[in-house]
Amino acid sequence: MTSTAETTSRPATRRRSSVRAQADARFGLLLATPALILVLGLVAWPALRTAVYSLQRVTLAGEESWTGLDNFRALFTDERFIHSLTTTVLYSVGFLLVSTLLGLGFALLLNEKFHGQWLARSLLIVPWACPWVMVGMIWKWFVDGEVGALNAALYQFGLIDSYAAPLSDSTGALVVAVLAGAWRQASFTGLLILAGLQTIPKELPQAAMVDGANVWQRFRHLTLPWLRPVIVVVVIINTIFGFMQFDTIWALTQGGPGEATSVLSIYLYEQLFVYTNIGLGSATAVVLGGIALVLGFVFVKLLYRSNAITEGVE
Amino acid sequence: MRTSRLRTVIVYIGFALFLIWVLFPLYFTVLSSFMTPSEIGVKPFHWWPENPTLANYIAIFTGDSAPFSTGQDGGIVSSTDAVARLVPAIGRSLLVGVAVVASNLVIAGAAGYAFSRYEFRGSTVAYLLLLASRVVPAIAVVLPFFVAFRHLGLLNTSLALIISYNAFTLPLAIWLLKTYFDSVPRELEEAAKVDGASRLRCLLMIVTPIARPGLIAAGLLVFLEAWSEFFYSLVLTNGLTVPPVVAGLQNLQQFSWTTLAAATMFTVVPPVLIALAFQRYIVAGLAAGSVK
Predict the structure, then answer these.
(1) Is domain A73-313 classified as CATH 1.10.3720.10?
(2) What are the tens digits of pLDDT across the range A188-210?
(3) ipTM score here?
């Protein structure tokens, strides 16, 4: 998985004369400049601007005045925000667990040989290809209390006595939101872990089998350590996606019933575009962005450590 | 022998559960789109339409609700306004997607190549900052875009979406393409340079053709992201692209689920077909973009 080009290039770089090296550097800067300007203008600037808004009071007329941390104080004393925060944590934990475990299961399954394996491998990409918002829409009607096929199937198998409408119940709505999100994310997880599984050299499991290791031992001491870097990446991506989820929940419940599925992203949307409370909305954005940054930082840290560990073992 | 039979049983049970998990919600959507509103509500449930109908598809495209306007199915009558918006939205979604892909491949391609081949002062720091910018959640920085586009009079235009989508696809595309260029051997370029080819000529005539698989993978991932994007289109435009238009149909009472299902199909089928057709490129891109 490490790139070989970097190592082969070094002698060539050293041989270059300094004049040519300078011209090379100019050419590189020239090629990279448009992208750098765009990313500065389209990511760094809006992020900075949002941070500034979060420390200000902005009137409808567009007047801005500094208010220090007032917006954050208001945020953390707002019961709806605290409720949103806890809902988001609940949602992302569920989303992370279901998508990661199902994805791991799918990857292990599709790594086995069986009739229909090619079909299953093709189908694995299908939920991932569905836009998030459409996933929400499909699941909304799939679990619907009147026309939903899930009710119909459970009813016909005698598992339920009457059709249920989970989206009108607070717990039910959150569970469906987790399942719908995980329906797509488990595919993504499965695709990545399967790609990781396919890099395991064939001799390893065979050697372990000769040594008398059983299925669990092979999984625990061979497959899992091999997959560690991929799983670390997947866990962090799934956590971030859980925290930032908007589309699926919006299509499913728009945050309802009541406030049952009003996660941070929905709270943020409402503050900015329904109540036009720029200060409070931007403070929420800073909290959300802060969570993403911390998770991203942990991600890089863990990734480096797990790389060091696997490299140390090899 | 016994363990291998057990293995077979477990694998096929797993396969069956997998098929149900992936296909059941989708089958329900396809099935609904070929049914009348009254048939979808029947108990016991019809697992196959009694009289398959294309009326849902016709209704969302032409607003012609004639098949449902008489008898008990009268409720399906479609809003001509929403219908009038769906067809142009498909065209605009394609336009935005193609424009974002084109700008990404040129801009990110050049940058990715630079980071792979031509170090300049600060290039490592710049590259790391680019990677870090992937962590910034789109949803958290939407307001400055909104304010700036309102100021520039760009709200509710395709250009607003093309510009803002670049913010989140560029870092991904640069990462993917840099990784890909790293895996392309340099010998051909070195040889061409000895023959007197300029750096730019090397990039255009030699590297670009070799890097085609990487460019395709990056282009496909970027297109799928642009096609599927919902939040920015919802906030910055009045539903210019397909996802917010279709999601918005849910709020209109006159649309029954069967018609919504047909509209959903138009949003879901194109990316699914693309993903199936280019599976290998996409999986390679996803793996490179997330793991390396």
Answers:
(1) yes
(2) 999 999 999 988 888 877 788 77
(3) 0.90
